[in-house]
Write a structure and sequence with these properties.
Blueprint (H helix, E strand, L loop, with lengths): L2 E7 L5 H15 L6 E7 L11 H9 L14 H6 L2 E4 L5 H8 L1 H7 E3 L21 H30 L9
Parallel strand pairs: 1-2, 1-3, 3-4
Length: about 170
């Protein structure tokens, strides 16, 4: 089974590709890269076809991650419905995701990235750094890094749960 993760922001040139590439690397380090697939999209088509924002690309390169091949994409409802985990970057992404998925599926699959922080945070949104400068991209990076371990643990637990035999005591 492949566990499908979709990261979602507004234009798919800053936040969602930053976590897409960072999460791929984290899953690889955890030995889960072969079993999990990570992609990113935007809720709008404003940036469709554009490369990653140069500031985000520079930040990722400084951390040893090459995102030069990234091209922004708009949310595809079929891809969204196939996702096992949908990671929203900010609160304004929740409405479009809930409308596309329906309330029940959204409740099962959609989470805010910062829901996975090691300790609860007051505001789970990650603000759009596009409007700021390099320090805003650094803040976004730190907020993503803070949540990565929890996301990897969640994916690992989900994959382990899927491996249990149907008649195991945990499923009775």
């Amino acid at each position: 089974m492949t566990y499908r993760i979709l990261t979602v922001c507004t234009g798919n040139i800053c936040r969602s590709p930053m976590i897409e590439y960072a999460l791929r690397e984290a899953l690889d380090r955890a030995g889960l890269g072969e079993r999990a697939e990570v992609a990113s999209v935007g809720t709008t088509g404003w940036e469709a076809g554009n490369p990653i924002d140069p500031r985000a690309g520079d930040l990722l390169r400084r951390h040893g991650i090459d995102a030069a091949g990234h091209r922004a994409r708009r949310l595809d409802e079929q891809e969204l419905h196939r996702a096992d985990l949908v990671l929203a970057l900010d609160h304004d992404h929740l409405g479009p995701l809930q409308r596309a998925l329906g309330r029940d599926q959204a409740a099962r699959t959609v989470r805010m990235v910062r829901d996975f922080a090691p300790t609860p945070v007051e505001d789970t949104g990650i603000r759009d750094p596009w409007y700021g400068d390099e320090s805003d991209f650094e803040t976004t990076w730190q907020q993503i890094q803070e949540a990565l371990g929890g996301i990897v643990d969640h994916v690992s637990a989900q994959l382990t749960a899927d491996e249990r035999p149907v008649d195991s005591p945990e499923q009775r």
